[in-house]
Amino acid sequence: MTLTISRILHAGYVFECEGTRIAFDPVFENPFSRNCHAFPDVRFDHAQIRAVRFDAVFISHFHDDHCSFDSLDLLDRATPIHIYCMFDELFDMVRELGFVHVHPLHIDVPVPVGAFTVTPREAMDADVDSMFHIQAAGLNVLNVVDSWIDPATLPALARFALWDMVLWPFQTMREIEVLSPSRAVAAPVQLPEEWFEQLAALKPRYVVPSSCQFVQEPWSWYNHAFFPITYRQFGQEMGAALPDSRIVRMNPSVSFALDHDGLKAAPPLSWVVPVGEQDVDYQYEGHAQAPRTADIARHFPPLTAAQHARVVHYCESGLLDKYRGMELPEESFFETPRVWRLSVFDHEGQGTDFHYRIEGDHIELFSGVPAALSWTTEVPVARLYAALELGEALTSMYLRMNDSVFDAQTEADLLDAELVDDPLIRCLFNDVFGAYQAAQLRRIKERG
């Protein structure tokens, strides 16, 4: 018996065995997650996808690059959808999309589907992620998705060694460091030591460097700032560390037939269409000069008057209400009195400053210009509007923090501050679930 494994995009895969076809984290969009452009580049034949029938779809977690309603909208509504998620709202929204068989996944509880048994395994952040243990044709495949393996979970997974294949998230991502590039510490361009230990314990026959690898808009400085680790480096270092394993690259559409004797090329997915060179690799420039937020904002089209007014109202009122309703994290930078400046830049690069006085859970607008600042945040107005109304993710908002030099005490306090303690980040993303999917669902329903 043979198991066929095909790559869709990012963490998306199709598995086929003995007439059963299942998909994992299917995303049929480029760009996906609003502004993540596939790298290598692909397009999708949506007419063909609508004709494909899956016996089940498995979604590892709710993040929008794994659970996209625009992609699910292409599937037959009788398709069973299995999701690992702690929030009932997501299941309700998938049912509102029209799916009639929507099931929660539970750690270590197997789900039989035809020739397959799929078992969610515990990831390090068990409140968010899951991994998948796929069994078919007498083979064991571990899909780590883009999570991390908890050291306490590793012995349970090692009991299945030799694994026939492991789909391994091979890139570290600097989505936080780019928020404050002038203060970021240079990234170690090396594979984490625990990866070698964990893969050695799993003893895989084949390792597929999986997940990540995307770029932003063509002009974006992020295109050389996100991913320090390349396919080439992973292949060389992990190949040397695991001489009994074979490192196999799977670009979008590529398929392999796996059995006990080995791995062979199989016909590619016809509805995933490669565009241009496919064996590309990320070019990381750890000290690339970040352009000014004003210059970045010029790349975006102007908002309408109503959209601009929505942003201004949020900065003057909605943000304050949201902040006051949240609980401040322990040992927050904002426990002591601070003055925060939020600068919002329009399509002409013109900035509007909003000043706030913050102490603990209290926030108020500061009239006039303060004598000294404690924290600064910059953002293009188009991206702030998109975060409010369209589910824009932090990854592509082009937020910029603390490019100023503050007084000595503030600088000392900032050494222990967390960037995600930023008031705008907290107000936009803390205690907010499913904004991206909710915006997608509204658009889908409006289209009829």
UniProtKB/TrEMBL annotation:
Gene3D superfamilies per UniProt: Ribonuclease Z/Hydroxyacylglutathione hydrolase-like
UniProt-recorded name of the protein: MBL fold metallo-hydrolase
